[in-house]
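Reviewer comment 2.1 asked that we show a complete input and output for one of the modelled complexes. We chose the fe (iii) ion case, as it is the one discussed in the main text.
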Amino acid sequence: MLKIGCHLSSSKGFLSMGKTAVEIGANTFQFFTRNPRGGKAKPLDLEDVAAYRSFAQEHSLFPILAHAPYTLNACAADEGLRDFAKNTMADDLSRLEHIPQSMYNFHPGSHVQQGAEKGIELISDLLNQILTPDQSTTVLLETMAGKGSEVGGRFEELRAILDRVELNDKMGVCLDTCHVFDGGYNIVAELDSVLEGFDRVIGLSRLRAVHLNDSKNLLGSHKDRHEKLGEGNIGMEALTAIVNHPALRELPFYLETPNELPGYAREIAVMKEVYQGECS
Ligand code: FE
Ligand code: FE
Ligand code: ZN
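Response of the prediction step:
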């Protein structure tokens, strides 16, 4: 069955996000765990969480995807910045335990002149400090566009991080279609071979979620500018092949396109239309 949703504002709490998701035809959603710039999180409203959990059960919204603030840098050269990333992520993970079986996605980081190898080492060190054997949340590394000194623009870099993480059974990967396209993986003309490469390097069993975005820029541009579905250089034909691909079609898809709610509702309806199979 097609599992699809979009990024929603978390300012009104979980129940409100759940209701919005259902209203726009989604059966999952993504949200920022706190201000995307990484400020302090509001105390968790346990009543809201409880109300959300029964609503989510009723509407089969599981699993949902939490997104870490994008300004965190797990491989910053400055130790204070790394500590901030570590403490923020650890706090996010402990809160997410109130919503069992969630996923938590983060941008691996930017190595800022330390080199990708050092970046990979710092990112896995941080993960080794915050993952716990009994957590129910799966932590996802997002595939990046390779902008500037971003780590995670190559599948090999994500694999190298996973290899160094002791509790890597708690980890997976989120594939962002705009990012991999901008990173030079031709998901338009060679989707099968890109996914074969992913399988060879990382393993498809690690792939847990897809960020479904079109791209404003060309293949290999390393820019990371999302576009509305069908209006960018990936295009509707390739996006249709992606949601229907045997290796991807059972995964949850999350739109991060430049849209307000009505635009998201339209894109969700379009993807349901082109999906070959059941849509709720
Ligand atoms: Fe992201
Ligand atoms: Fe993304
Ligand atoms: Zn992006």
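Residues 79-96 form the longest helix (18 residues). We note this here for comparison with the apo prediction described in Section 3.2.
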